[in-house]
Amino acid sequence: LSERLGGVFDRLTKQGALSDDDIKTALREVRVALLEADVSLPVARDFIKAISDKAAGQAVTKSITPGQQVVKIVHDELVHVLAGDNDNAGELKIDNAPAPILMVGLQGSGKTTTTAKLAKRLKEKQGKRVLMASLDVQRPAAQEQLAVLGTQIGVDTLPIVKGQSAVDIAKRAKQQATMGGYDVYMLDTAGRLHIDEVLMDEVQSVRDIANPRETLLVVDGLTGQDAVNVAEEFDSKVGVSGVVLTRMDGDGRGGAALSMRAVTGKPIKFVGLGEKMDALEEFHPERVAGRILGMGDIVSLVEKAQETIEAEQAERMMKRFQKGQFNMNDLKQQLEQMLKMGGMEGIMGMMPGMGKMKKQVEDAGFDDSILKRQIALINSMTKRERANPKLLQASRKKRIARGAGLEVSELNKLMKMHRQMADMMKKMGKMGKGGMLKKAMG
Ligand code: GDP
Ligand code: MG
To answer: Which residues are involved in binding GTP (predicted)?
Structure first.
């Protein structure tokens, strides 16, 4: 998978500019990657649409790093969807003791295990006194399972009273938590193999008694698209405040996470990474994003390819400068580099000997929008004019300025700057390879 994507992005990098076809090809691969990661079809479709809009908008700028650009757009969009606006992954509302936390989900999704993992975390990381109660009267020995885990992690469990209903147990847990001075009490509910009315009714009754501060839906991260239906059903019936994805230590790629986020908008709070009691961590959107597209490799691959290209480019320019050549194409490349390297501030700071110019630049109120306007001016010149700036006489200047939608005075400033830089480059070029010019050009 990542090889396929790698190939596509590799080609993009070598081409130098992002065409519509490039974007289409890349997005086709991304789409396949999403579907392979079990992202549901409508979600994948919307996602691709969002990316293609963004990529198309950026293609016009003719970025000098097209492959990287696509990779970054895809990655950022994944993180954006996964993270949502203001999720506090790993944080739970547990003020006003005793704070009830309700755990819901299908049978075998990992509710009981996650209940204990969370209790351990609250106890150890936040110093909370936690009471756990199993409301699972369906499965034999389900209550004992939680009691065993409680003993193992040193967290209290509600004493088992046989023959009580889930609702009875919830009431007792609430009472015990209040009287016993607990900070948090956790209600581990029973699951069914599939969503059914009886289960939902029971969970609703329990919710009405406990009035939970958090209702966490536990979902098996290996189940793909099904997870979304489950999430929607639980949310509409009981109201879900957050999601825990279990079995993210498995082979699944975490597409469920993306689908769930996109469809329900519920924050993913935690991720289960194994059967052990400390195999629970806060949800990190970047990690899951990387996992879904297997992109970690690709990002570094593209960056490496990019570095090589830039080094070759720098080498080529250096040779030109040494010969005293510095035309408008060179200037444009420099301006684009400057933008990329953090604008004027960044590049001036890196170039010793730029002191005098730096002052001029500051006096002129130079900022990055000027860089962009200057690039626009150069774009408005013909090939011949760029190669030979001496051609730029009055009538040509007017045409160029009009083409860029700017005043001739701005073009004059650009030309003055070009002359100064050409002089300086000549001097610096004579100082030879290696040194500061190479460093300044990154
Ligand atoms: P419940 O029916 O929802 O309460 O599910 P359980 O908590 O009993 O978990 C069912 C099985 O899944 C148990 O064998 C757990 O050890 C296992 N399990 C739970 N969470 C994880 C996880 O994050 N990773 C792995 N590998 N196994 C898990
Ligand atoms: Mg259970």
So the answer is: 105-112, 188-192, 246-249
